[in-house]
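Pinned message: reference record for Immunoglobulin heavy constant mu
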Amino acid sequence: SPKSPGEEFLHAGTWVLLHRGNAGGIDAWGSGVVVTVSSEGSHAPNLFPLVSCGTPATQDLYSVGCVAVGFLPDDLTFGWSTYANASITKGVRVFPSVLAAGRYTASSHLSLPFSDGKTQQPFYCRAAHPKGSRSVEVSNPGSNTVTSAITIHPPSREDFEGPYRNSSILCQIRGSRQLPAAVRWLKNGVLLKDGVTTEGSVADSKRAYITNSWATVTEAEWDAGTVFTCQVDEDVRNTSKALECGYDPSNNNEEITVQVVPPVFADIFKDKVAKLTCKVTNLPGVEGLAISWWRENGGKLDTKMLPQVLQPNGFFSVDGTATVYADEWDKGEIYTCKVSHPELLFPAEVKLQKTPSRNAKAPSIYIFSPPSEQLTMQESATITCLVKGFNPPDLFVRWLRNGEPLPTGDYITMPPVAESQPAVSYFTYSSLTVSGEDWRAGNIFTCLVGHEQIPLQVAQKSVDKASAFLDGFTEAEEDDLNNLWATASTFIVLFILSLFYSATVTLIKVK
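Predicted structure (tokens):
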């Protein structure tokens, strides 16, 4: 700023201070210091990505960069991170800023081994500046661009012929980098938490990364037309028996149908509430759809509409759910599902009420240790839980090891089957398979059964190696005792016969 009349401002531009000319003055800046004077205000940078335009000289090096343009003052800091927001410090180079037309330009370069670069891309270049920070995504496809793809493969029919009557659906993700997000599986639109296995990404010979994920499917689920969905980010793939084998539209009932599904005992026992489900199927679209649950006295329940699910026939289904207290449901109160849709001439109403079971009975529980023939092979051990004589048929079976719940994928429970006709009682069995080492280690395995007629609604039976040995030892003792008695009986009979024979011969001789 001017100190005295006639003193002028420095004009905009760049000045190099060679020497401060006042005699006896202090050279505070020093010779050669660059001083920039601009008539413009401060400016935030514009940030642009830099990628390789051709084939790099070596396939072992991965390079990307970014350039910040038009910022002022010269106070800018670069930073690099991966798609997973992990900071990068190695392989980063920052070039000095350059002044042009009163503003600065600077650039930064990132060099990594090719395998690391392809794994961690896209990268994010960030430029921090007093007037505002900027961020830009940078990816370098190079000469070997890999097209991302998701494929889903149906289960093998041969696998259904195994003892558990189940198989697996494969979802394969192929991309230029390791999978950043988890694979989500859905069964008829509901998130699948059990029976899902996802492997880590593996690089192939073409520098693509392959990720495999499997979902377990039973033969009954597949034959029933259950739709399985593999979801990665926003991309989804669907499969079902009808979609894979072809669907016959002539057999389709295209009318919108409304069905009510009563709550299952397992949910009531776990959450202490009863979930009411209203299933609307064969919807050409969900726009304008309204689902609501009502009490018999007219009170409306809080109803939640679940996401739409694609049916094998190309239409959609939507579930509307509401919850009530378990004791209200058990008392037999009546609930009504009301559905309206532009394709329905009149709103549909369907009632739902708990039906009292005739001949209600609590189940009997029996647990069986692995057969000795299987233990001899020392490969695996199968423990069986037989549940019989119960009514109504709704119950649940869980397995525990040393008091801790086991994953549902470790065992299979058959649907309840009527023991007679008419159905007065039902039976089912559950089979748990463990390793031979797990069984020989003496762990305690428990079959936990829940049913509404059981006192406290739950009962259990346990088995381990020691108890199975004692049972087998007792049975062996009984067998030995029976054999000994049979042998002794034979000798007694023969002895009596010999005495009778001797007496008869002596009597004849005396006569």
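Pinned by admin. Summary line: The chain has a mean pLDDT of 80.
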